[in-house]
Structures
1.
Amino acid sequence: MTREQFKRSYGQYIQNQRNIQELSQEELAYQIGISTEAIGRIERGITSPSLTSSLLLEEKLHLNHTYIKKLLHHSSDSES
């Protein structure tokens, strides 16, 4: 998995978890203190969130750390 593929997969995961919790992009953005546009770019895999935003997203959306680590592992394997 390339870095770009990781960003897309991570973004899809964020979007899925947000939808499960029935949050709009606007609500999530407000709750973690970033712009709605930033949420959209993250979900589309255009950009990666900052470390702070990542931690806030993980906390708010109850993201699975094991799943994210697997995505990262696959990403770093393909770039080696």
2.
Amino acid sequence: MSDSSPEDSVGKFELHVSEDDTDVAYLRLPSHPGTSPCKMSKSVRLRDLIGDYDGPDVVLDFDLRGILVGIEILA
């Protein structure tokens, strides 16, 4: 990871892999405000959208305006 401040990461894709659990990753999209923690309006599991989905657990995070800001992947 880079040593950039949160303000430097606004508008960029940024992948974070958990140091405690390497089976967990979070992709910040360019629309993410870059602050931690970000206020999420809604989180939706991909399994809930696609009934026969068979893959890693994927969670889509939306901000208060309904814009997709991040994707969590749990392998």
3.
Amino acid sequence: MTQTAPLSPQQLARDIQQLEKRLHQIDPTEQPAQYRSLYCTISLRQMQLLAQNSQRVDSGHSLASGINR
């Protein structure tokens, strides 16, 4: 497995939008495997975006709390 550089929040958001467009074009009864795969990929990207945003908030609070001490 190769590692790639993490995507920026903007890249993740664009990726999610593109994947959702593709998801809506697929009939889950005709292509269940592809539908499931796209759905899982969207969920993964959403979790990555949430994790990045959470890290930013946490680091911001850590910095702010350090200054106030």
